[in-house]
What does this fold into?
Amino acid sequence: MEKIQFKCELLSDIVLNDSSATEGKRRSLDFIPGNNFLGIVAAQLYEKTDDAAWCIFHSGHVRFGDAHPSTNNKRGLRIPASIFHPKLNGMETGCYIHHLTKQDANIRAMQLKQCREGFYIYDQHYHAIQVAVNKDFSIKSAYDSDMRRAKDNQMFGYEALCKGVIMYFTVEIEEDAKQFKEVIVNALCGHHHIGRSRSAQYGWVEITESQFEEVATTQQPIQIEDKQYVAVYADSRLIFLDENGNNTFQPYPRDLGIEDENAEIDWNLSQVRTFQYAPWNYTRQAFDADRCGIEKGSVFLVRTSVGVPPEKTVGYYKNEGFGHIIYNPIFLQADGEGHSLFKFSKQEEIIPNIQSTEIESSLIKFLRKKEENSTGENTIITEVNKFVEDNKKLFSQDLFASQWGSIRALAMVYNDEEKLKKIIGCEEQENPEKGQKKVIECDKQKEPEKKQGYIVHGVAAEKWNERGRREALEKFLKDPKLKGHLQEAVINLASEMAKICKS
It folds into this structure.
């Protein structure tokens, strides 16, 4: 048997419902079942290789494994159901292995809670790190096929795996099917759609050949009191049938690959969870019959006198990713008190380095202009209100109502900001001697040929010079925050101040 390893990267969110429910909230699987990869290959090869269709897709000689969330070039595994942690503490404070923990008063007082969620990678340094798997949720409307419209008051949600997740899986090819290895690999590699709503925004993945590290195991049998056990960990979901062809949740040791007539499953030490779902057949556009079995992460403790068997795939539907088990994985080891030898922690969140891309289009330019105008309007309102509040007592005479009216008229004519400053009475120009800007303060001592500003000549000039009125207006005109919006700012200021003077 040859094992080929693959990497599956999510290029978009994907929807993989864990049930066949058509309404209500739909939870997404946190892994990609092997039957999705079988479907990818079948869509390309089934009709082209009629003579080999049975060998590739029906004989069990080719087995497409489940893709698990992974990191650091290690394939993640579902947290074993035999791992417990104190109810009031998290896994980070220490965990216990169920079948190796002595159930005394101290243990019962801690109220141990079973760990059920999440995928972890395990290293040789006894570190177990949870793989981060983000999910998103969107609201949809149920569809009335008879009326050909959305159903009234019937909403449901799609839970989806977020893009960016890296997953690893294997394809096992036995000797009888090795001649099809190349075509299977070529059919798998590349860009494909997986899951539901593939015509919308979901399901885009990229599959490539990639080597990854599998979890280590030990050949040392487990000793509990004076009895010898083998731990059977369900790496994938398991489906077993009884002698009548019905689904069963109570397999025999031989069903788990242990060839020992005297072997027995200790159900008190085992931790088994179950599942039920109906797979969707895309070709027939209908659900297949319900499948019931053992959920991945379940752990069987088998009492046996034989050694640890070699790696096997057991049960039914093995070609679709079911039936892969691991004997005596290292993460089920504990000390004499039942404490797990592994220290559990969560994966550090990695913030991706996203390079910004400048997008230029008519819509973007329009929106950017609208934003600039909105920002400018807010600045004008803020600065005008501030001037009015700070200086309204300086212009409480009726005389200045006409002055502000004239300034408003000037602002309506001059859209050039420098000319507007100059015509009002505030001018900036270069000092040839010092190379610095200075304000020309026009007064009666200035040369006659020097152009005078509105507020610095005439009968009202003396009034503007009193109590810092001119300085206040000049400060407003030179405010750098109003650059590019000065004309509109002066028009608004003059209108507001004229109202103040008349009131």
